[in-house]
Amino acid sequence: MTKENLIEMAKDAMDYSYSPYSKFKVGAALLTKDGDVYLGANIENAAYGATMCAERNAIYNAYCHGIQFEDIEAIAIVADCPRPVSPCGICRQVMSELLPPDTPVYLANLDGEVKETSVEELLPYGFVSEDLNQ
Ligand code: THU
To answer: Which of 34, 65, 75, 116 has its CA 20 to 30 A from that of 3?
Structure first.
């Protein structure tokens, strides 16, 4: 599975977006080391706070199918925006706990622009479980 293929799958996942409020479709595709792909799209709600982002849906989808931290290879996220889509803070926090720090994160838009980053680069000095120990 190439980076380009994974981005294409994330783009296709935009079709599953339920976004009647923002009308902003986002798709995500999480690749495992076994070569399996788990998709996600943003799902909104009239109670806006109940909205779930595409990348979190992809990650939770993978975990719900038994995928674990060490099984994860990469994630791609695509939306129609002027620059490669930038994940929100909550998604960065979730990625920092559920994906290995060096996991490649491919951010893309529909103009074909791609920004390649990593989980640790997206959230420096993040809050982690060890911080709960007093
Ligand atoms: N959204 C995502 O799904 N992922 C991102 O990386 C950015 C934002 C969604 C949440 C909401 O449904 C819509 O985009 C507008 O914020």
So the answer is: 65
